[in-house]
Amino acid sequence: MSGPPKPAVGTIGWLDLTVPDAEALKDFYQAVAGWAPQPLSMGDYSDYVMTTATGAGVAGVCHARGQNENIPPVWLIYIVVEDLDAALDRCAAAGGFVLQHPRSAGEGRYAIIRDPAGVVSALYQG
Fold first, then answer.
1. How many CB atoms lie within 10 A of CB 118?
2. For position 1, what pLDDT does the model report?
3. Is 81 in contact with 9 (CB distance < 8 Å)?
4. CB environment 76-109: b (16+ within 10 A), e (fewer)
5. Residue 84: which of 126, 120, 47, 50 has the closest Cα?
6. What pLDDT is stored for residue 4 in this prediction?
7. How far apart, in Å, are the Cα atoms of 59 and each of 68, 77, 112?
8. Are 111 and 121 in contact (CB under 8 A)?
9. CA 29 to chain centre
10. How far is the CA of 16 from the CAs of 62, 63, 86, 90, 122, in angstroms?
11. Which of 45, 60, 81, 101 gives 16 a disulfide partner, CB atoms 3.0 to 4.6 angstroms apart?
């Protein structure tokens, strides 16, 4: 049995909302968008995978703690890249900045960057 198809290089692979109080915002998006929050243990607290009525994951609502403590309140997009290390080199060469160096995530790795305009996003290699 195969899982869902992997996102194509150059597409948005996932969205995380990072905020100081994920508890309050998960309820907001449940009421407004109809998403159901599924707790995801982060050790001593939970972040949330928000799902549709059919159970499909659509986004995360995360506390700005732990590995996310230095991320401002933001909808963080994860842009799928072929080679994370090469993309980070190109980011720096093009005037961007690596805010968080690569770390593991499921079957891949990601890093958080800031572009020359100051916008924060993540690059993900599956």
1. 8
2. 44
3. yes
4. bbbbbbeebeebbeebeeeebeeeeebeeeeebb
5. 126
6. 62
7. 15, 10, 17
8. no
9. 16
10. 7, 10, 23, 24, 10
11. 60
Regions of the chain where pLDDT drops below 70: 1-5
pLDDT at site 42: 92
Pair 24, 68: CB distance under 8 Å: no
- Supply the pLDDT for residue 27: 93
CA distance 39 to 47: 6
The 3-state DSSP class for residue 87 equals: helix
Q: From residue 50, how far is each of 22, 54, 106 by CA, in Å?
A: 11, 11, 17
What does the pLDDT read at residue 3?
54
Determine phi and psi for 56, rounding to 5 degrees: -75, 130
CA-CA distance, 102 to 122, in Å (whole number)? Answer: 10
